Amino acid sequence: VTHEGHPLPELAAGLGAATLSGTVGTPEAGGYYRQVSGASNLGDLEVWTAPTVEKVLRTMAVPVASGPLRIAAARGEFEPFQIVLRAPSARSVTVQTSALVKGSDAVPAPTMHRVDYVTISTAGDHYDRLGAWPDPLWPLDSGGSLSLPAGQNQPLWLTVHVGHFPMDMPL
C-alpha cells in the first residue's frame, strides 16, 4: 500500500519491454511549443519556447513550428515564460537578460532560473511518470554560466515584472 492507501499498479510480466513510437519533429498538438524566430548568432544551439503550465522533459523533440516569443501581462503583474535550450554537444554558455523594449516602453530585465530535474523512482499513483522530472528552479544571475547536456533540453524559467503599462509585444 502506498500514498493514501492506494495499491501499487500491477505490472503484467507477459507484456515485454515498453516501446515508444513517433517521429522526431512531428508538430505538437495545438502548436503551443515553437522555435523562437529571429534568434540569431546561436550556431547549432536550438532555442524554443514552451508554455509555463508544461513540464519540459529532457528528451522532448524540438518543435518544427517557429514564431516570436510573446509575453502578455497587465500592469503590476509578474509574468513567467520558459525558454528551452538544446545543444548537440555538451557545453557551457553564458546566459544574459536585458530590459524588454518596444519603442519608448521598457520592462526591466526578467529574473532567470534554471529548471532542474529530480529523479522519480516510485510511482505515487497510476499517472506518475518515472525518471527525470522537471521541478526545482535554481536562480541564475544575468551573465552567469549554464551547462548544457549533449542532446538534451535545458529549460530556463524567466519572470518579468510589468510596471506602469500593459505589455503585448513580440520580442
Written overview of the protein:
The protein has 171 residues and is mainly β. 0% of the residues lie in helices and 42% in strands. The chain has strands spanning 34-36, 46-50, 66-67, 70-73, 78-86, 91-95, 100-102, 105-107, 111-120, 131-140, 144-148, 153-161, 167-170. Strands 3-1-2-5-12-9-10 form a 7-stranded mixed beta sheet, with no helix packed on it. Strands 4-13 form a two-stranded antiparallel sheet. Strands 6-11 form a two-stranded antiparallel sheet. β7 and β8 form a beta hairpin. It is globular and about 65 Å long. The model has no long low-confidence stretch (mean pLDDT 82).
According to DSSP, the number of beta strands is 13
If strands are numbered along the chain, what order do they take across the biggest sheet? 3-1-2-5-12-9-10
* Shape type: globular
Low-confidence stretches: none
* Distance between the amino and carboxyl termini: 51 Å
**Succession of helices and strands:** EEEEEEEEEEEEE
Key attributes of the depicted protein:
about 170 residues, mainly beta, about 0% helix, 7-stranded mixed beta sheet, two-stranded antiparallel ribbon, single chain
Structure summary:
This protein is mainly β.
SSE order and pairing:
Layout: E1 34-36, E2 46-50, E3 66-67, E4 70-73, E5 78-86, E6 91-95, E7 100-102, E8 105-107, E9 111-120, E10 131-140, E11 144-148, E12 153-161, E13 167-170
Parallel strand pairs: 1-3
Antiparallel strand pairs: 1-2, 2-5, 4-13, 5-12, 6-11, 7-8, 9-10, 9-12
